[in-house]
Specification:
Layout (H helix, E strand, L loop, with lengths): L4 E5 L7 H8 L7 E6 L1 H11 L4 E3 L9 E6 L16 H17 L4 E4 L4 H6 L7 H9 L4 E5 L4 E4 L6 H7 L2 H17 L7 E5 L14 H14 L4 E6 L1 H4 L2 H4 L4 E4 L2 H12 L4 E5 L5 E4 L16 H19 L1
Parallel strand pairs: 1-2, 1-5, 2-4, 3-4, 5-12, 7-10, 8-9, 8-10
Antiparallel strand pairs: 6-7, 6-11, 11-12
């Protein structure tokens, strides 16, 4: 079977993304990498790290020290640790070009580095996250899931103010999220009968309505309806005890109702090896599970573990899809 062909996007050029990609380019992978980004930022990162890097033309096989590149130049010179809104369009263009190549079938998956949301919005581009950008480009409904070797945590809502979360958890949205999650666990992860643990929204999962009715009025009816179709769904369960090891042993993924309900537990359990997956796209997309780390950008001290895990995960998912 041919090696997967993966797009690699560094993300914010002033962050740690370029140096992480340079470190990734030093390894032999079970996939061919094609980077989309600014060549000067990558070359400077290689120089700062003291690592060899040849930026080759697309179509050249990737190899240790050799990274094929689709050039997406930044109009303003990149200064490590200092994002420039003038470069926002180039950051977005790299993501869009890589996504388009995956949609066209010329690449088999997409690995993305960290993006600086404020710099993009300050550059005049309305942007809430790469997950939403790729979903809109593909015309698909998607679900964000973060995973490490201990737990998979999917999100019913993502980057919303806390006061907006309850209104966003509607029966239709929750059912759509669970169907996408269930299909991805089955098709992409090879789990024939996925078991999903669903958290409640309120403390103690609403305490029988005394601490909120979302569990009674919204979450439980959706779970009952999908259970009747054969899905294995536990909950809604209190979030403060749902991540106990005994409960995690009996599930394949946890569905949290909002970002900070589930992700602190995942990051505490294994931040360096965690990755961010976009479920529901017609190709696998895996991102690092950390930010741009502007405070250490250019110092050569950024840990590449999450990017390495993302490349490995995307390669495995691309191979599974090719075999399907």
């Amino acid at each position: 079977m041919p090696r997967p062909r993966l797009a690699l996007v560094p993300g914010e050029p002033a962050g740690v993304g370029p140096e992480l990609c340079v470190r990734a380019a030093q390894r032999a992978w079970d996939a061919d990498l094609l980077a989309f980004g600014d060549p000067t930022a990558l070359a400077r990162a290689a120089g700062a790290l003291g690592l060899p890097l040849v930026l080759a033309t697309p179509g050249t096989p990737s190899a240790p020290g050799v990274l094929p590149l689709v050039e997406v130049a930044t109009p303003v010179a990149v200064q490590a640790g200092v994002p420039d809104p003038a470069n926002a369009a180039a950051t977005i263009a790299a993501l869009e070009q890589a996504g388009a190549a995956c949609l066209a079938g010329s690449l088999d998956g997409l690995v993305t580095g960290p993006v600086h949301k404020a710099a993009i919005n300050d550059g005049g581009i309305a942007y809430t996250g790469t997950t939403g950008l790729l979903a809109a480009q593909a015309g698909r409904e998607v679900v964000m899931m973060l995973a490490n070797d201990i737990v998979r945590v999917a999100l019913a809502t993502t980057h919303l103010p806390l006061r907006a979360v309850a209104d966003a958890i509607t029966p239709a949205a929750l059912e759509r999220t669970l169907r996408i999650l269930h299909a991805a666990l089955r098709d992409d992860f090879g789990i024939p009968a996925p078991r999903v643990l669903v958290l409640g929204l309120n403390p103690h999962a609403g305490e029988d309505g005394h601490l909120g009715r979302e569990e009674i009025d919204v979450i439980a009816p959706v779970l009952d309806r999908l259970r009747a179709e054969g899905m294995s769904l536990a909950g809604p369960l209190p979030a403060d005890t749902a991540f106990l090891p005994a409960k995690l042993r009996d599930c394949d993924a946890v569905l949290a109702m909002y970002h900070d309900q589930g992700l602190p537990v995942l990051k505490y359990s294994g931040f360096e090896q965690a990755v961010n997956l976009t479920l529901g796209l017609p190709y696998p997309r895996v991102a690092v599970d950390h930010g741009t780390a502007l405070d250490i950008a250019g110092t050569g001290t950024a840990d590449p573990s999450s990017l390495f895990a993302a490349i490995d995960a995307c390669s495995r998912l691309a191979l599974r899809r090719a075999r399907a």
